[in-house]
Amino acid sequence: MNTTQHTLVVGLQFGDEGKGKIIDSLVDDFDAVVRFNGGANAGHTIYYKGQKIALHQIPSGVLNKHVLNIISHGLLLNLSLLVEEMNGLDAFSIKLTSKNFCISPLCTLVMPWHIAMDRATSGTQIGTTVKGIGPASADRINRRGIRLIDLFAEDFEKRFMDEGVIQNNILKVFGGDTLDLKKEYTLLVKSFEQIRGYVLDVYDLLNSLTKNNKRILFEAAQGMMLDVFNGTYPYVTSSVCDPSSVTQGTGYVFPLKKIGVLKPYLTVVGAREVPTEIFSTTADIIREKGNEYGATTGRPRRIGWIDIPMLRYVLQHGIDEFALMKLDVLTNIDEIQVCTAYWDVHIDEEIRYTPGYNDGLKHITKVYESFPAWKEDISGMSKFEDLPKNAKAFIKGIERYLDKKISYISTGVNKEDLIVR
Ligand code: IMP
User: Fold this and answer.
1) Residues with catalytic function
2) Distance in Å from the first CA to the final CA of the chain
């Protein structure tokens, strides 16, 4: 197998970097797109004939007719939201069939009690998306998760009720709302009936696609700073978000080309330390221009300057190419700041890498370099040479700090608004 037969698109910050658009832009060269981690907490935005589509569980290859869209076992699957998402695509005349969409029977399901528990517990402290990801993940690891394959069993109703009684008792302890199990069972089975025709042995499928020299694009959810092991713990999601998540979420160690996606500023939803957070009106300008509101929850995103120590930290996981998104959002900003390092005042020394946990980011002194912005409209540009002088200088500055070339630069929401170098 050619070592770059398959490609991974992975977020390098706190999610919402623009992975959906990069997938949509690259997908013509691929035969399949796979979602393999995270769950409905993800929100991947693509544009179809100028209209915005927010995808949560369905892979971002759906606009391309020749592409097979696959959900592998790593994704925590919410059946009722999946049905809603599929129905939502009807409005754009995008038809999913068993020929272009399939789901692994080994996906662990996010059950209604997981969402109730998320609401009753961590939802309030961490600021989760309340999609039940933490509790569902805990049950998966604790070996009490219900998987899609279980719904095919004749005694599934008993399994559901037995588990539901236990979960209702746990919910009572945490002061959560208990569930009407009969009603929830009926709803779950109704959703299951609508998707059962898409269930396929994805493990076997990935193997045969690879053997037949088909090219697969792996679409990671969230961003590497939200990784449960390496991110700003405990203010993280409950999944692995780094390149190793492909192995966990598919069962294969594929040789991959890894494309890291980043924005020229930071956005964050939920509680955590954000050393470069902007508190001036510049944050509001970036938020509005970049439409920086949660694709899943609608929450306004917190805005910060690009944080090089954070990027250097995640790059240790190995990234081959970079995609810098939303450059156009910074047009007309007075002055762009780049946090180039942190400074440890106790030992009077530069810190080049973000400490890998939330508390390590408290009381950090930042070192910034400022770059003059550009006034010229760059929307839709597709050639690097056409960018204004200051935009080029800004990109070259980031490349210098990261010691890497940026291969893709996005200059607008449409698939075509992309510079490829
Ligand atoms: P959970 O994944 O819903 O449990 O949320 C845990 C943390 O991850 C919260 O701070 C969320 O805001 C954040 N998070 C989860 N998914 C995303 C995403 O797709 N984009 C941005 N933040 C996310």
Assistant:
1) 16, 44
2) 26
Ligand 1 nearest atom to the CA of residue 226, by list position: 8
Atom 19 (ligand 1) nearest CA: 42
**What is the per-residue pLDDT for 356?**
82
Q: How far apart are CA 221 and CA 25, in angstroms?
A: 17
Cα 128 to averaged position of ligand 1 atoms, centre (Å): 5
Distance 16 CA to ligand 1 centre (A): 10
Contact 234, 126 (CB under 8 A): yes
Q: How far is CA 149 from CA 31, 101, 135, 154, 194, in A?
A: 26, 17, 20, 11, 15
Q: Express each pLDDT in 316-329 by its tens digit.
A: 989 999 999 999 99
Please provide the CATH number assigned to the domain covering 262-420.
3.90.170.10
- As for ligand 1, residues whose beta carbon falls within 6 Å of it are 14-16, 41-43, 126-129, 131, 133-134, 222, 226, 235, 237-238, 269-270
Domain with residues 7-106+200-259, CATH architecture = 3-Layer(aba) Sandwich (3.40)
Atom of ligand 1 at shortest range from CA of 134:
4
**Domain at 112-195, CATH homologous superfamily:** Adenylosuccinate Synthetase, subunit A, domain 2 (1.10.300.10)
In angstroms, the Cα distances linking 129 to 115, 143, 278 are 10, 24, 23
Q: How far is the CA of 296 from the centre of ligand 1 (A)?
A: 9
Q: List pLDDT tens digits, range 112-138.
A: 999 999 999 865 678 899 999 999 999
> Parallel, antiparallel, or unpaired for β 256-262 and 44-48?
unpaired
